[in-house]
Design brief:
Blueprint: H1 11-16, E1 22-23, E2 39-45, H2 50-66, E3 71-77, H3 82-88, E4 95-96, H4 116-125, E5 133-138, E6 143-146, H5 149-152, H6 159-170, H7 178-214, H8 228-231, H9 234-243, H10 248-283
Parallel strand pairs: 2-3
Antiparallel strand pairs: 1-4, 2-5, 5-6
Helix pairs in contact: 2-6
GO molecular function, one term: oxidoreductase activity
Protein name: Thioredoxin domain-containing protein
Family: Belongs to the peroxiredoxin family. Prx5 subfamily.
Length: about 280
């Protein structure tokens, strides 16, 4: 069965996914008009994720038995590097190609996925906290039919189980039971609550109590300051002065002063000798 009009998508997917890089299983450019089946499964998974690897065979079984009549599958990859991405290109699903896409800033170290940030933001916008996140959308209305495909296909589903799940989706109902969703919600939120309580206890109870017991922090000892003025001796000062080099200007001034002093001695010596002779004559 094929749609008479292009498939519709929920706003969260229309705004969050890079549709300008949407391709089919052969890597050829595609669009929403390429999705012709009544149901579209969007599978947010990655090769490095163990639960995703466990779910992958079940998604493949759905595609194998219902791709011709009921289901189109869009693979939304959160692979970390290009090698993992190229391996997933072998899957017969619609996907988002990395070719000729600039890698944005703010990615984790060594991450080569240009859609890493947008895909994770879409997962969170769907109300999920991690992957695998696999949803079923009614392509005629753009309504999310099932948000817990991983729960509906958990374990070892048989072909009859898969056919029953597809029939539920075609009828607009979730294939996962209330008990499955409740158990998942309890387990997930129990972990989240545990870590939040532990963080609250550590930051608001344990740490303040530890500070109260240990008292205020002791100030760090100040470094000893050496009194240069008191420890510098006269001899050291004299040695420093004697060791300083005389500048050319000072040397010139010293030479000029020596020459002036010598000239003064030459002029004053005869006068002093004459004055001494006159004094001797007076005494006689």
């Amino acid at each position: 069965m094929s749609l008479a009009a292009p498939a519709k998508v929920p706003d969260v997917l229309a705004q969050g996914l890079p549709w300008q890089h949407f391709v089919n299983s052969q890597g050829e450019p595609a669009s929403l008009a390429s999705l012709r089946r009544p149901l579209t499964i969007y599978s947010f998974t990655a090769a490095w994720c163990p639960p995703c690897r466990a779910l992958a065979p079940h998604i493949a079984s759905v595609h194998e038995s219902h791709a011709e009549t009921d289901v189109d599958i869009v693979y939304v990859g959160l692979e970390y590097n290009r090698q993992e991405h190229d391996e997933k290109n072998q899957l017969p699903y619609f996907r988002f190609a990395w070719d000729n896409v600039e890698v944005p800033q703010g990615l984790p170290a060594d991450c080569e996925n240009p859609f890493w940030l947008s895909h994770w933001a879409t997962v969170k916008a769907l109300g999920k906290m991690g992957i695998p996140t696999t949803i079923v959308v009614d392509a005629a209305t753009g309504t999310i039919v099932d948000r817990a495909v991983d729960l509906a296909l958990a374990g070892q589903p048989s072909k009859a189980d898969i056919a029953r799940a597809v029939a539920q989706w075609r009828a607009g109902r979730s294939a996962s039971t209330f008990w499955m969703r409740s158990k998942y919600w309890i387990i997930t939120h129990s972990f989240v609550t545990f870590f939040r309580v532990r963080r609250f206890f550590r930051e608001w109870i344990a740490t303040p109590f530890r500070r109260l017991i240990s008292g205020p922090p002791k100030p760090a000892p100040m470094a000893e300051v050496r009194d240069v003025a008191e420890e510098t001796t006269v001899e050291e000062t004299a040695e420093e002065v004697a060791g300083e080099e005389t500048t050319p200007l000072l040397a010139a001034e010293a030479g000029e002063a020596s020459g002036t002093f010598a000239t003064a001695l030459e002029v004053a010596a005869p006068e002093a000798e004459k004055a001494a002779d006159d004094q001797d004559k007076k005494e006689e």
